[in-house]
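Now for a specimen:

…
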Amino acid sequence: MNPLFQLSTRNYDKELELVRKAMQELETTCNVKNGFEIFPPSNMAGWTFFNLQLSSELLSVIETSGMMEGALGFRIGEQVKNFVGHYLESKGSQVRIKQINY
């Protein structure tokens, strides 16, 4: 199963570009093609929500490369969510991230 995360923001256009660029950089670092998918957004109460899904290949590289060292969480799904959230934040994104499926 590929992990699925819900991202939320009040500035979708700006954040979409930041997330896309950050994930493309992560793909390059991990030497993975088609490592993520961003799904169409939905709006509610001034927030825009969109889903980000990682490929199993990208996830495997992240888990085995030591990139998640220091990511907090009791379970691997929570650690991946925290890693992705901190990675996006380090690239300038201010989205909120929520784990939907792992």
